[in-house]
């Protein structure tokens, strides 16, 4: 049951409280205008503020910046003046929601409104605590930088930590903000504050994972072709852990050949599995006793990197926690599709030479979920499942590069309030424009190539994407992860001699499409263009005080260059249509605030944004 927390955390400092509350208001205002819940055309601009008229009065926004792609960024105060002329400052999201809820261009429910309020409050409270911890963490990192003799954070990471260790450090440390367009960016409403701190990456957490045992005839297993023997593979990846697990089974007079090692998140074990699967435990299908594996949660919270062995695979797990937009189960769709798409992309990259060695993937090599041999219901396994993802790996020519998760690029440095991306630009000795052009080329060449040639949509958003940077701070290579929900347009695959078996189950949204490429295009635009490249352009434009359209102009030029390079390999009609959709037509993206207000009755609500690449054409 999700708890409702409606009081702001009282022990944070005034500065932290103010920042986190304003952070929530900033996100809420952005979503309201982007999704058209408040009509931007009704805004009235004056010399020092912006007015939005309501039936009962007027809202005044101080320092409301309007950026490309209908992005409304609010930096100042919000003032309410009613029709009697009385003024009040809007100091939290509850007041703002109450004022505008009856004028939203959307049918909401009372439960949806109250749920939104509670989840934003929970996000604020978690944000306050995370920023308190961040002060201590940054102080520790700053001291390490000084003691190492380095002057920058990125040089410290390059010269004193392995790339794999730097990758997980940056993944955890860069988890502070979350997706900028999520109004409930830090919501973990059924976790206690203490559990949030113990389990979350932004608190530098180390979390135990129990290695339970599931009977082999009670599981569906999906693997890449060269990983057919799960038990043998697990024993190779975790030799010490395998022996401990095997000995505990043998001690109970069980034959390990009849059981599968099943990792279970420690919180999930006690909060969900023990009760939810009580009958299976009682009947001897599932054994919860087993050794524990110490892990670090990555940016997604529930994909874990084992502390040992050094090159152990990542482990993606279900956790029955309401986070950002949904209960984080791990459905059969992800189990089936992750290894399938990994194998497909692996073959394509081999045949395409990685599109000039521009992209690599972290393969989802083995996955399985509980599936009772008699009932044969995939849905029963959504809270008892696992995906094993390849350990951090870079091509040999890039193995000395620094891997940085994209969200981390926007995170303030330990030594100052500048985003980490500024250190890389300074190291490069390039102009911001030239640095960004190279970055955009590294990202867009493989993303558009896989889409236009093969109909494969990479979810290259801030959390799923790592960029490998050279010693000079320049982007060199794209590393992408998480394929269970990836979208594919089958006809383009078939044209090039490939196929992908789709997963189908009643009530589960498809990810392989046959009639229309639009869902795949929207997937690419939303993840790569809007929530990744657009956000970097916003950050750099603001930090360096650039002329507003310059970086979006570069994005248009690079996108056009990639399309031109691929023109001879696709039909003219496809090329013309897709080029127009990416460069000129409005961009479709997910309506996350509207989904929340409707209590997620439809997970594919979308709205359109003005195409920022057409804005400067």
From TrEMBL:
GO biological process: siderophore biosynthetic process
Origin: domain of life: Bacteria
Entry-linked InterPro entries: Aerobactin_biosyn_IucA/IucC_N (IPR007310), IucA/IucC-like_C (IPR022770), LucA/IucC-like (IPR037455)
GO function terms (MF aspect): acid-amino acid ligase activity
Residue ranges crossing the lipid bilayer per the database entry: none
Pfam families with a match to the protein in the record: FhuF, IucA_IucC
Protein name, UniProt field: Uncharacterized protein
Organism: Candidatus Hamiltonella defensa (Bemisia tabaci)
